[in-house]
Structures are given as C-alpha cells and as structure tokens.
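Write out a record, fold above all:
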Amino acid sequence: MTEKFLEERRSQMEKYLNIIAKHPILGSSTAFKVFTQTPNEKFEREKQKAEESHESLEFKSLEDAYDQVVSIVQNKLQIMLSQKIMPFSKEMSNIEDKVLKIEAPIQSLSASFSNWTQRQFDSLKSFESFMIPDLPDFNDLIRRYKTIAHANINDLNKLSLEFHEEFLRLEGLKQAINSYKGTLDEYSQQETLISRKLSKHKSSSDEDTAARYLSEIQKTQDNLDRINKNISQIEENLEKENASLDENRRVHLVETITEIARNQKKYYESASTFWQDALYSLEIPKE
C-alpha cells in the first residue's frame, strides 16, 4: 500500500468518525467511546467488556420489544373479539356523535360561502375592463362602482373567515377526540403489557430475573399512571371546549349571517344607486 493510499484512507476514516461523533446517539455510545478513547494497550480488554455489556443490553431490549409487540397484537385481538371493551365514557361518546352530526353541514356552509365570495370576485375582475369610449360621465360612475364592489369583496372575505373559524373549532374538537381515543388505546396496551410481565415475574426461576421483571412492571405501572392522568386532562379539556362550542356556535352563526345580510343590503342599495345614476348619465338630451 502506498503512502498516498494510506493518507486517503486516514482522511476518509476521520470524516466518518466526525460524522458519528456528531450523531446524538452513536456519538455517546459505549462502543464509539471505547474505539476512539481507549489506549492501544487496553483496547482488547475494554472492547471485550463493551461487547459483553452490549449483548446483555441487546437481549433485554429485544425481549422488551417483543413483549411490547405481542401486547399490542393481543390487545387489538381482545378488542376485536369483544373480550375487552375500551373505556370510552358516555360524555365523550355524546361529544363525538355531535361532532359527526354537525361536521358536514358546517363544512358545506363554509365551502359554499367561500365559493360565492370567489364568484363575486371573478365577476368584479370581468368588470374591471368595462369602460366605454366617449362616455366620460358613465366611466366615472364605473370607477366609483368598482370601489364599492372591492369594499364588498373585502367584507365578504372577512365574513368567510368567520365561517372558517367555526369549522376549525369543530376540527379541533374532532382532533381532541382522536387524541383521547389514541390515549385510551395506549392505556389498554400498557395494561396488557403489565399483565404479560406479571405472568413472567411469577414464573421466573431466579432472583435476578424476577427482580428485573419487577422493575419493568414498576416502569409500566408508572406509564399507566401517567397515561391515566393524561386521559383525565383530555376529558376535562374536551368537556370545556364542547361546552364553549355549544354556547357560542349558534350565537356566532346568527351574528355572522346577520352581518352578511346587512352587508349585502348596503351593497345592493349602492349598486342600485349606481345603475340609476348610470341610466341618467346615458340619457340623450332632448333638443
């Protein structure tokens, strides 16, 4: 091997090690630290210790991963076969039914109003070039009408956001329900997992294995307590948001539609005045 070849390999190795060193997991791993920090005379001994430790940790993590996967599958089978019922409260079920009932009408209302506003805008764009030579008074009226029409489009866009806000609040409630379901599913999986680990703990033949399972059981129980707390918090938040939606939804819709009616009444009165003035400006004076 030439000196140039060795230098290229050394440079490539340095780049590779720098990449690993910057990695949040690989850079802090025992194997990497042994490889980069251990003196030559101690390298073989430290390498063997690291490998023994790694094999033990790998076995534990693989077994735990296997338990997790089996628990998920077992939990889903129990639910599918009606051997296990998800603890979905009546209040949450009522909220979900309500969301499903009103979601489509509110989405349709929001979309319809947005489409109507867009058609108004498209119509105004077509009107932009509507100028008639040799009729300066009429053209002046056209310019004034465009200003009125633009103001109307801006008002409609603002009101369109009000409808969209109603839809977004409903979507937020829907997402919260899905989060609630996911948390319940996670809780159910952890219950199945702890049952599996308890069974292993009872059948373990030596104290070290039994102690390890007992430690895993405690960690799983801590997870259950945390998830249960999350469930209670999500339920509380859902009930508050649902109450707020019920209280404000009808008032908000009535106020928005009332504002639309007022806005359009004012606009069409102005439009009527414009066309009336346009007729006057087009009258041919009698000789």
Remarks:
- Confidence is low (pLDDT under 50) at residues 54-59.
- The first helix runs from residue 3 to 22.
- Helices lie at 3-22, 30-37, 40-80, 90-127, 136-203, 207-282.
- The two ends are 112 Å apart (CA to CA).
